[in-house]
Design goal:
single chain, mainly alpha, 83% helix, elongated
Amino acid sequence: MSKKLGKRNAVFIGMSIGIVGQVIIYLGAQMMSVPVALTGVIISNFGGGFAFGLLFAMIADTIDYGEWKSGVRAPGLLSAASSFGAKFGMGLGGAIAAWVLALGKYAPNQVQAPSALLAIEFNFVWLPLIANVVVILLFLFYKLDKDEPQMISDLTARRGNTGIGA
């Protein structure tokens, strides 16, 4: 799909599928239907897989872009930065989920207050949906799909077809 539509558009499609899945989860919760909610989880994760699967290829594209623009190839720095960003994001995501539960007055091993149930719903349905929308908005700035053919051509010529860094 990414070859036909481009990586950015494949991510858009994946995140859009993720949004549809999140809405189905919400509908399943409102209908009190576990099969509908699980179907939403499967659909949402399938859509997320598009983006997460392309992430590493897109990081490689940024490495090539840096070499193309500046002549400096820095795969270690960019890989380390993306790894740090992923770890920081996972930590922040866990903290946000905990903060939302605390705001909802969640109390473990007890019957939950309506505010706690709303916090759980927000964490499970709306927070991932918002994250999908944010990813779509951020990927509006990803323009390497247009430049990639020229970039690959120029880098191949510059390297003298040695395949270094390819």
